[in-house]
Amino acid sequence: MAAAVNRFKRGLLESRQQIGIWSALASHYTAEIMAGAGFDWIMLDTEHAPNEVSMVLQQLQAVAAAPDRIGVFIGPADLAASLGYPGNPTHPAVRAAIDNAIRRIKACGKARGILMVDETRVHECLALGAMLVAVAVDMMILSRGADAVAARCKSSPNGVVN
Questions:
Q1: What's the whole-number mean pLDDT along residues 74-94?
Q2: pTM
Q3: Considering just the CA atoms, what is the radius of gyration of the chain in Å?
């Protein structure tokens, strides 16, 4: 019997761009739903906290060059907080740092990953060479979907959803 092919790793080795989703709800139900949604990969974020990202940026080539490292994932929210712009990952200084990091990781020959939910910015990051782009977060999808259903029910006659 042939061994199963890890399409994710194969994509990394072939420098193929892959679109994924960030899952922070820590629920197997959510993970199963997301797995069937057609994304190339799912990031299961079960323990997340900002760290000293700006220090890592200064040593990015050394971090990326580690022989056992396949790639480097950029966390825009952590980066924004580390650069002094908490809650503002779209600040021009953060955008510039992200762009620079993608270029530097690419120059090291490693996979470049990022969480980016703004569709215009997703395409900019892909054009820069990002390979693993998480384009949505399960909590945001659930929240927006729930908000939309509630709004439709409250605005339609007799609470009937169209």
A1: 94
A2: 0.86
A3: 18
Q: Where are the domains of the chain?
A: 16-152
Tell the residue number behind the tokens 């952590």, with chain if given: 78
CA–CA dist 35, 107 (Å, integer): 31
Query: Which of these is catalytic: 28, 48, 91, 123?
Result: 48
Q: Where are the alpha helices (DSSP H) in the chain?
A: 7-13, 28-35, 53-58, 60-65, 76-82, 92-107, 119-128, 138-155
Total count of residues recorded for the chain: 162
Residues 37-59 have pLDDT tens digits of 999 999 988 775 577 787 888 88
Class (C level, CATH) for 16-152 = alpha beta
Q: List the structure tokens of 40.
A: 């190339």
Task: Please confirm, yes or no, whether 28 is among the known catalytic residues.
Answer: no
